[in-house]
UniProtKB/TrEMBL annotation:
Gene3D superfamilies referenced in this protein's UniProt entry, alphabetically: Divalent-metal-dependent TIM barrel enzymes
Chain segments carrying region Disordered: 1-34
Keywords: Endonuclease, Hydrolase, Nuclease
Keyword Hydrolase tagged: yes
Protein name in the entry: AP endonuclease, family 2 superfamily protein
UniProt xrefs under InterPro entries: IolE/XylAMocC-like, Xyl_isomerase-like_sf, Xyl_isomerase-like_TIM-brl
Domain named Xylose isomerase-like TIM barrel: residues: 59-262
GO terms of molecular function: endonuclease activity
Organism (species): Haloferax volcanii (strain ATCC 29605 / DSM 3757 / JCM 8879 / NBRC 14742 / NCIMB 2012 / VKM B-1768 / DS2) (Halobacterium volcanii)
Length: 287
C-alpha cells in the first residue's frame, strides 16, 4: 500500500472557468457513451443505505449490477463482507470514514478496513466553516496533512471528498485550490458538486489527476434553490458531461470512477441502471 498524494502541486489560482449557476451550454451535456475507458467502476454503498440489506448483500447486489468494486460508508459485519468480496470478485477501492473516527483510533479503522482489502480511506466531509476563510483553510490543510502522515506510516492512502462549499472563493481562488496548495492531501473529486459550485469538473481532473485516484461519478441538475446548487439525478439525466469527464480521467492516473446518488428514489433500480450505464463506457475487451 502506498500514498502517492504527498507533496504540493505547483501553481495556483482557480481551476478553469466558472460555468455559472445557470448551467453549462448544450455542448457540455452528456450525449451518450462516446468515450470508452479502461477505468474501474464502483458504487458508493451509501447510495443503497435505504435498502433493508446487510453490507454483504449490498456487495453481492453491486456485483450483480456489473460493478468492479464497492466503496464503503460503514460496515455492519466485516466477517460476512469478506466472503462476499471473495465470492464475487468485487474489489474494495476505498471507504468513507468520518474524520473524528480517524483521529480517535486510526489503528482500529485500518484494521477493520484492511481486513476487507481497503487501502484508501476517505474523509467524506468537513463543515463549511473549515473552508470559510484563508486561516480556516490553512488550519484544515494542517489537520489533513497530520492525518495523511499517520496514514502514510500505516501504508494507507488518505483522500478528501469535496462537496460544493469547498469551492467558495477565498482570497481570489476556490478554497479547494488553496487546500491543494497548502497541503499534500489526495482528493476524491466529486464531479457533480464541482459543477454545481459553478466550475468545470474536467479542469479539476486535469489539474489534480496526480493526487486523485478516485472520482465520484454523480449526475446533477443545476438548481440555484437546491441545498448545494444542484439536485442529484440518475446517470445520464443531468447536466454533468459524463463523456468528457470519463475521457479525461481515462487519460490520467485516476483509477476508479465511483458512482453515487445521495437520495435515489429507488436505490435498487438506481444500482441496476447505473451498472448498465457505466457498462457502455467499458472498452470492448472489458465489456
Amino acid at each position: 500500500m502506498f500514498s502517492p498524494c504527498r507533496g504540493r502541486v505547483a501553481g495556483g489560482g482557480p481551476v478553469g472557468q466558472s460555468v455559472g449557476r445557470d448551467g453549462p451550454s448544450a455542448e457540455t451535456v452528456s450525449s451518450g457513451a462516446d468515450e470508452r475507458t479502461h477505468m474501474n467502476f464502483g458504487i458508493q454503498l451509501y447510495s443503497l443505505r435505504d435498502l433493508d440489506e446487510s453490507t454483504a448483500a449490498l456487495v453481492r447486489r453491486a456485483a450483480d449490477a456489473g460493478f468492479d468494486g464497492v466503496e464503503f460508508a460503514g460496515v455492519d459485519d466485516a466477517a460476512a463482507v469478506r466472503p462476499a468480496l471473495d465470492d464475487t470478485g468485487v474489489g474494495a477501492p476505498a471507504a468513507h470514514v468520518p474524520i473524528e473516527d480517524l483521529e480517535a483510533d486510526l489503528d482500529a479503522v485500518c484494521e477493520r478496513y484492511g481486513a476487507l482489502g481497503v487501502e484508501t480511506l476517505v474523509v467524506p466531509f468537513l463543515p463549511p466553516e473549515a473552508f470559510a476563510d484563508a486561516d480556516a483553510v490553512d488550519e484544515t490543510a494542517h489537520r489533513l496533512d497530520d492525518l495523511t502522515a499517520k496514514c502514510d506510516d500505516r501504508g494507507v492512502r488518505l483522500l478528501y471528498h469535496n462537496h460544493d462549499h469547498e469551492l467558495v472563493t477565498v482570497e481570489g481562488e476556490p478554497a479547494l485550490d488553496r487546500l491543494a496548495e497548502e497541503s499534500g492531501i489526495g482528493f476524491e473529486l466529486d464531479l457533480a458538486w464541482i459543477l454545481a459550485a459553478g466550475y468545470d469538473p474536467v479542469a479539476y481532473i486535469d489539474r489534480y489527476a496526480d493526487r486523485t485516484p478516485v472520482v465520484h461519478l454523480k449526475d446533477v441538475v443545476l438548481d440555484a434553490d437546491a441545498k448545494r446548487g444542484g439536485r442529484p439525478v440518475p446517470l445520464g439525466e443531468g447536466e454533468l458531461d459524463i463523456d468528457r469527464c470519463l475521457a479525461t480521467a481515462g487519460d490520467t492516473p485516476v483509477e476508479w470512477a465511483v458512482v453515487e446518488h445521495d437520495f435515489p428514489d429507488e436505490p435498487a433500480a438506481f444500482c441496476r441502471d447505473a451498472g448498465e450505464f457505466v457498462a457502455a463506457y467499458r472498452t470492448d475487451e472489458e465489456a
